[in-house]
């Protein structure tokens, strides 16, 4: 795990981000939790708005929405979404 990516994810907790997966796909959502292996992103009730899993993998920790875990090893890039997206 990259400690700088972990620290970056921790600092973005509660904020909307754009995640660039190593397979080239972009995902948009709000960081709800971070652990030593994953960053958990709430993709919203409608999925990732055309950027990812659509229906997602289900629920995480009772957040009541569409929270998807992303392994740090699968993340190619991470940026605050406010700088790029105006939803």
Care to describe what's here?
Keywords: Membrane, Transmembrane, Transmembrane helix. The chain crosses the membrane at residues 67-86. There is one protein chain. By secondary structure, this protein is mainly beta. It has one domain (3-83): SH3 type barrels (Roll), CATH 2.30.30. The chain contains 1 helix and 5 strands. A 5-stranded antiparallel β-sheet has the order 4-3-2-1-5. The longest helix has 9 residues, at 3-11.
SSE arrangement:
Elements: H1 3-11, E1 16-21, E2 26-34, E3 38-42, E4 67-71, E5 75-80
Antiparallel strand pairs: 1-2, 1-5, 2-3, 3-4
Transmembrane segments: 67-86
Keywords: Membrane, Transmembrane, Transmembrane helix
Short overview:
With 87 residues, the chain is mainly β. The protein is built from 1 helix and 5 strands. Helices cover 10% and strands 36% of the residues.
CATH topology annotation:
SH3 type barrels
Shape: globular
The overall number of domains is 1
**CATH architecture term:** Roll
CATH class: Mainly Beta
The biggest beta sheet is recorded as:
5 strands, antiparallel
Task: Work out the helicity level.
Answer: 10-25%
- The helix/strand class is mainly beta
Unreliable spans are 48-60
Rg over CA atoms, rounded to whole Å, is 12 Å
Count of alpha/pi helices: 1
Give the beta-strand count.
Answer: 5
Mean pLDDT: 78
Order of helices and strands: HEEEEE
Strand content of the residues, in percent?
35-45%
Query: Biggest sheet, strands in spatial order?
Result: 4-3-2-1-5
**End-to-end C-alpha gap:** 31 Å
Transmembrane segments: 67-86
Keywords: Membrane, Transmembrane, Transmembrane helix
């Amino acid at each position: 795990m990259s400690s700088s990516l972990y620290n970056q994810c921790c600092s973005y907790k509660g904020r909307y981000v754009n995640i660039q997966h190593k397979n080239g796909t972009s995902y948009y959502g709000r960081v709800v939790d971070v652990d030593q292996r994953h960053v958990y992103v709430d993709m919203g009730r409608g999925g990732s708005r055309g950027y990812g899993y659509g229906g997602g993998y289900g629920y995480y920790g009772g957040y009541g929405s569409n929270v998807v875990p992303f392994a740090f090893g699968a993340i190619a890039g991470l940026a605050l979404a406010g700088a790029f997206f105006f939803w």
